[in-house]
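As noted in the main text, all predictions were made from sequence alone. Below is one such record, for Olfactory receptor 2M3-like.
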Amino acid sequence: MEDGPGPNVSAPLLAAAAAAATDLIHIQMVFREPPTVRRSVFAFLLLVYALTLAGNSLLCLAIARDRRLHKPMHLLVAALALTDLVENTNALPRTMYDLVGDSPRISAPWCIAKMFAYHVSFRVHGYILAAMAADRYLAVCRPLAYRGAASNAVALRALAFAVALAAAQSLGNVAIAVNLDLCKPRSLITSTCDFLALRVLSCNHVALGQAYTYAMSVAGIALPLGAIAAFYALVLHECRKPALRRGRNKALRTCGTHLVVAAIYFGAILATFASGAGGGTPSSAASPELSVSLQSLQFVLPPVLNPIVYGLRTAEVKESLVRFLRSRVRPAKPLAPLQEDTRIG
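Prediction:
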């Protein structure tokens, strides 16, 4: 009679072997033990997801309903809110399910589909922030040319180009990932599906895939960040000139709001790379719990904080949100019928 598994064979390895036999990838979820920690983390993620849905949905509704907010900058804010919703929905519901499920596993095709959505939303987010910086540069430094150069049509074309570019770049990641031979035990400790995570399960030579992934990371992070830095360097240079006109002061206030949002986004990315996620797996220098937590900041912090920042720091958006909420709680009184004006002259 054959001996069963020895006492030193861990549960994750057994789960990985079972996953390999069924074309599934076992996700070694952290924070599952003890059960009290699992429930606390689940409640926290559920709260974050609910706040993200509520905040970004309200922001989009306020901008869509108020014609005074149908301006290029506010259209970009609404697009950023939609991107946050996609990014957060792609990550958190599945994470919460795996956290409380009996056996957290995901099929390779579904993992690659999530990877595509992650890469598209991640890159679109950075490109929108760069477009916002360009809008603020024109508003402050080229106010006379702003109305012609920055229109709603231009903003919509820029958004369409950003989505198309991000999708084209992400399809390259998908093409590389689908050709991986996942021959090793299918077990990962990660908060996202990504080529850099899947490569540890592959027997293929992945040098070309790694080079492409890092190049696209530069395109999705360094280029938008460089564009934002360049535009705001020009804005700061403009601020050194004699007193700005009143209209420019209003544009400058929105610059501060945008800089806060950009700092949150790129700060979360920096934390992700600091955790070792730039290599696709948690850093060996840190505990898995700390590494996965830092990796998750990228799709947790910006989506939940962005609507709060724009709602509190942008007067027009704040007023529109207040009017919208009041109309839901206390319906507006019907307008009195117009009376004919008989005055002459």
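The beta strands are 24-27, 105-107, 187-188. Confidence is low (pLDDT under 50) at residues 1-9, 11-22, 338-345. These features were considered when defining construct boundaries for the mutagenesis experiments described in Section 2.9.
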